[in-house]
Design a protein that fits this description.
Layout lengths: L9 H8 L4 E6 L10 E5 L1 H6 L12 H4 L1 H5 L2 H7 L9 E4 L13 E8 L4 E8 L1 H23 L3 E5 L5 E4 L1 H7 L16 E4 L12 H7 L4 E10 L5 E11 L5 E10 L1 H27 L1 E6 L4 E4 L1 H7 L3 H4 L14 H12 L4 E8 L5 E12 L5 E10 L1 H50 L4 H34 L5 E4 H11 L1 H6 L3 E6 L4 E4 L1 H17 L8 E9 L2 E8 L6 H4 L20 H11 L3 E7 L3 E9 L9
Parallel strand pairs: 18-20
Antiparallel strand pairs: 1-2, 1-5, 3-4, 4-5, 6-7, 6-11, 8-9, 9-10, 10-11, 12-13, 12-16, 14-15, 15-16, 17-19, 20-21, 21-23, 22-23
Pfam family, one: HATPase_c
EC number: 2.7.13.3
GO molecular function: kinase activity
Length: 637
């Protein structure tokens, strides 16, 4: 086959031989392009595409050259498009260009064009690489589209004018709009209001996409509200970034955003609750005594009121424990129960007496609450306290007044009984003697009656003296209290009674704690010791081996005084309820008047203390007195 006949321009041949794609030129026997058109030229690259059968000298027709395209009905379609101005290429695999099956995976494009009135040409190009690249692109594009559709983030893409050219499903869902109402709109459109947190408009020049397009910078986590189509405000967290083409030229921008409305509402709720909580804590700080300790009781924080009432500086309090303020009023069991409760996670409430650095006592209504860490384990304790010292002291004074009133009533009853019984008895005796005297007996009888009148007068005077002793208790109540040394007061008492102790060969044992002191009305302590020790001396029963043991020791908030003897003792089963009664005696002792123990008990109770006795007839007695270590400055009337 010739490269071309004489009618074909040589310039075309020279041009076609150098083309980078295959060229086949066909000549039609008529002015219509048919399947019988014969091949008149093929450039070198075209010959490599199509295998020509050797030994065939005649010119091949279109259908003979491409039989598989003929079978598929493609040739007629290609020829009918030759005269069209904008014909499109078709894509063929290698098998369609050959008679034989091939494992070749090459892809070709075929484009048919008219050359002259009766000539046309086919252009063949190997587009295998381009085809695979396009396929990969399409696959990536499809995957990207699937990713964008399934993203929780809303995504939009805008062009250089700010027009939205793409929006994913999440964007439509977040904005409560359909995609067709988002695409083709401008992101800065007034159709949707974009606002700040305070409700003011969000400036267009500060919007993330504006910055991405204008300043070509990436913006992260910009928060603003958006209101579209009258919907409620949606709060968005927006990231925006510029988009560049293959040449690095800006062609648009993309934005991804999350709906943070619920988070924002929750955050606002939390902030509101935090403000309320802060107001409550501020009120507590101003009105309450506050501290925080770790689980071992070490102080980590104190407020100003705590510092003021404790008398210690903040530096002295921090890293110490509350034992610094312990007044030693509460027993060990009290603290053990408190710690057991709070370490179990239970809030604790109670009243605690503390002692300041200056030694003053104060009472606190206390509330202790456990504080937990992120693992729900107790990490510290919050203590909130209120100073109720005045209330407690007022209550104590009231109780003391009631107590003293009861004592005074009892004393008044006794006093009335004595007046009605003893003095009436003396009066009756006087009346009887005077009546006898008026009956003019003999001189001797008159003398006897006068002697009896003198004896009755002495008894009446003694009774009145005892009543004066009782009344004197009330007169001493308002005397000021002083710090007294127990050992000194005991020695003073023993010196007063030294003659009686030595004359009866009584051995005295002292068991008094060193430096033991007591805040008390001194004359009361002297009277109590004198009555108890003189009673022990009075009822000694042994000429040898008689003893008196005086002991004193400190108890929580109290001082215990004990006077023990091995004298006559008392039958408590018979006389137990009468021991501290007025004018009660239990032995035929001529010195006994039955007034000492009554006065002692009255004085002890006035001081807020207690007195008790243990005794066995013939073996001895033990009197035990408990007195408050630090009572009020003076006992109330």
């Amino acid at each position: 086959m010739e490269s071309f006949n004489q009618n074909t321009p040589s310039s075309f041949v020279l041009f076609a031989d150098k083309l980078p794609f295959g060229v086949f030129v066909f000549e039609s026997p008529t002015l219509e392009f048919s399947l019988e058109s014969k091949l008149v030229y093929a450039n070198p690259l075209a010959k490599s595409f199509i295998e020509f059968h050797s030994g065939i000298e005649r010119q091949l027709t279109v259908k003979e050259l491409l039989p598989n395209l003929q079978k598929e009905g493609l040739l007629s379609h290609i020829l009918s498009d030759i005269t069209k101005k904008n014909g499109s290429p078709i894509y063929l695999n290698a098998e369609l260009l050959s008679d034989q099956k091939s494992n070749c995976r090459k892809v070709y494009s075929l484009l048919a064009k008219q050359l002259t009135d009766n000539c046309f040409f086919f252009l063949f190009e190997d587009v295998t690489e381009l085809s695979f690249a396009e396929k990969t692109f399409r696959e990536n594009e499809s995957q990207l589209d699937r990713v964008l559709k399934t993203m929780i983030n809303g995504v939009v893409v805008v062009n250089l004018k700010g027009q939205i050219i793409y929006a994913n499903d999440s964007a439509a869902k977040i904005l409560s709009l359909s995609i067709d109402k988002i695409e083709n709109k401008y992101f800065a459109s007034k159709d949707w209001r974009q606002i700040r947190e305070d409700g003011n408009p969000f400036p267009a020049e500060e919007l993330p996409l504006t910055l991405a397009l204008g300043e070509q910078k990436t913006v992260y986590n910009c928060e603003h509200g958006i209101i579209a189509d009258g919907e409620k405000v949606k709060w968005l967290s927006v990231n925006a970034s510029p988009l560049y083409n293959a040449e690095g030229k800006l062609e648009g921008a993309t934005a991804s955003f999350l709906d943070i409305t619920e988070f924002k509402n929750t955050q606002n709720t939390i902030q509101l609750k935090n403000r309320k909580l802060k107001a409550i804590l501020d009120a507590i700080e101003r009105s309450a005594i506050v501290s925080v300790t770790d689980t071992k009781g070490i102080i980590q924080r104190v407020n100003k009121k705590f510092i003021q009432i404790s008398g210690y500086s903040e530096k002295e309090l921090l890293d110490s424990d509350h034992r610094k303020l312990n007044s030693k009023f509460h027993p060990k069991e009290f603290w053990e129960k408190m710690w057991k409760d709070i370490l179990s996670g239970h809030p604790w409430e109670g009243i605690i007496r503390n002692q300041s650095k200056q030694g003053n006592f104060f009472w606190l209504q206390t509330f202790i609450h456990p504080l937990y860490d992120k693992n729900d384990s107790i990490e510290s304790f919050l203590s909130i306290r209120f100073d109720i010292t005045e209330e407690v002291e007022a209550l104590e004074n009231t109780n003391r007044m009631l107590h003293f009133t009861g004592i005074q009533n009892s004393r008044l009853q006794n006093f009335a009984y004595i007046v009605s019984h003893n003095i009436r008895q003396h009066s009756s005796n006087f009346t009887s003697l005077i009546t006898l005297l008026e009956e003019n007996p003999s001189e001797e009888e008159r003398k006897n009656i006068v002697n009896m009148l003198h004896a009755s007068a002495e008894k009446l005077n003694e009774t009145i003296t005892h009543l004066n002793d009782i009344i004197s208790i009330n007169q001493m109540l308002n005397k000021p209290m002083e710090i007294c040394s127990i050992n000194s007061e005991v020695q003073k008492t023993l010196n007063i009674l030294k003659g009686s102790i030595e004359s009866r060969n009584i051995e005295v044992f002292l068991e008094i704690e060193n430096h033991l002191e007591l805040k008390i009305i001194p004359v009361y302590l002297e009277s109590i010791l004198l009555n108890l020790v003189s009673n022990a001396i009075k009822y000694v029963r042994l000429k040898n081996g008689a003893f008196i043991r005086i002991s004193a020791k400190k108890k929580p908030g109290q001082v215990q005084l004990t006077v023990e003897d091995n004298g006559l003792g008392i039958d408590l089963e018979k006389h137990g309820n009468k021991i501290f009664g007025m004018f009660k005696t239990f032995h035929k002792n001529e010195d006994a008047r039955g007034i000492g123990l009554f006065i002692t008990k009255s004085q002890v109770e006035v001081l807020g203390g207690t007195i008790s006795v243990q005794s066995t007839a013939g073996l001895g007695s033990t009197f035990t007195v408990f007195l408050p270590e630090n009572p009020n400055e003076s006992a109330p009337v």
